[in-house]
Amino acid sequence: MSENHPVPMPAQGLGGSLLALANPTRFLALARVLIPILSGLAVVLAAIGLYLVFAVAPEDYQQGQTVKIMYIHVPSAWIAMGGYTLMALSALGTLVWKHPLADVSQKAMAPLGAAFTLICLVTGALWGRPMWGTYWVWDARLTSVLVLFLMYCGLIALWNAIEDHSRAARAAAILTLVGFLNIPIVKFSVDWWNTLHQPASVVKMGGPSIHPSMLWPLLIMAAGFLCLFIALHLMAMRNEIWRRRVETLSLRAAREAQ
């Protein structure tokens, strides 16, 4: 090749990887590989975790068998907050870096985040009934998680209300970033206010205060939930890309038919 036509150098590092994934075709190829791997890991980790939960993890001396709800409730809560955090990063990708797949990621994540938040709320109510004598109290932690669920639902409604993809992406990104202020409130509400909800016992300064016989089943279940969440998110992004391609082809065919 002549000096007037230099060979283009490939992008390096994380930035280059993200730039490569901006191509929907490359993303679909990666998703095709990762989805079955993550789905298989989710099944294996869930099976191991459930075995440890019911065969190894002890009952709580106060809560008895109801403490087993923790192994669904806590991972769901982590995924609910983590999912919204990823949505906020996707919102920055839309507004700041104009990443072509950022709004696809955000739109695909909202229903999943809402589902895991709902699981968190329902299991929390079932866990709270024998401990607190009621399914619901309007304390800071429960109320802030309910607000998180409503934020997810609001974003889903916003996406469905605006037909233009670019306008919907910008509006959803702005609302997501405003709503992200609620995530620190969810996390630190038990520290900032006096609530019925127990304080953090896993992610805390000085290390976990929960016994290893309960900690390891919880972490394995959380890893299974995370693999499931990522696999579902990749599936939802793949479906959204396909839906937009079909929509584009349909509009093109309609214009050509005129």
Please render the helix and strand layout as text.
Blueprint: H1 13-21, H2 24-55, H3 70-95, H4 102-132, H5 140-161, H6 165-179, H7 182-192, H8 212-257
Domain count: the total is 1
* Overall pLDDT metric: 85
Radius of gyration using CA atoms only? 22 Å
Distance between the amino and carboxyl termini:
46 Å
> Would you tell me the structural class of the helices and strands?
mainly alpha
Helix-strand sequence: HHHHHHHH
Overall, the morphology is globular
How many individual helices? 8
User: Per DSSP, what share of the residues sits in E-state strands of 2 or more residues?
Assistant: under 5%
- How would a textbook summarize the main sheet? none
Low-confidence runs: 1-15
What is the number of beta strands? Answer: 0
Query: Helix content range of the residues, please?
Result: over 70%
Report on the structure:
By secondary structure, the protein is mainly alpha-helical. The protein has one domain (37-58, 65-198, 207-245). The protein has 8 helices and no strands. The protein has helices at 13-21, 24-55, 70-95, 102-132, 140-161, 165-179, 182-192, 212-257. Helix 3 (70-95) packs across helix 6, helix 3 crosses helix 8 (212-257) and helix 5 (140-161) packs antiparallel against helix 7. The longest helix is centred in the C-terminal third of the chain and has 46 residues, at 212-257. Mean pLDDT is 85; it is low at 1-15.
